[in-house]
Amino acid sequence: MNIGSKNKKRVVLPSRPDPPTVDQILEDISRAAPSDPVFSVLEQTGQESLQPGDGDVELKFQQCRQYLELNERLQDARDQLIRQKEELSSVGERLDRDVAEVKGRQL
């Protein structure tokens, strides 16, 4: 039994500070000099800047538009396949009846 460990006082840590607001973050970024180490690290790693370029926005817009168009085409194709399945089912039923009728005549 270790008597010394019972006598240790717990250290009370200060509470965490509140996270910065969006305005504080943007203000901090706008105050930073171009030579700030964060910007040089981004350049070294090949990461893009924090602000998306117009090309990025346009690319995302075109991708969303293509997705929506493709989704619409897929829904149309699904509807067409459902109609064709129903037609094939009715034709198959009619064929079964005709075959049964022909067999009935032969007997």
Automatic annotation (TrEMBL):
PANTHER family associated with the record: UPF0449 PROTEIN C19ORF25
InterPro entries reported in the protein's UniProt record: UPF0449 (IPR028227)
TM helices/strands, residue ranges: none
Region of interest: Disordered: 1-21
Composition-biased stretches (Basic residues): 1-11
Record keyword Coiled coil present: yes
Coiled-coil intervals, chain numbering: 64-94
Keyword vocabulary terms for this entry: Coiled coil
Similarity-based family: Belongs to the UPF0449 family.
Name used for this protein in its record: Uncharacterized protein
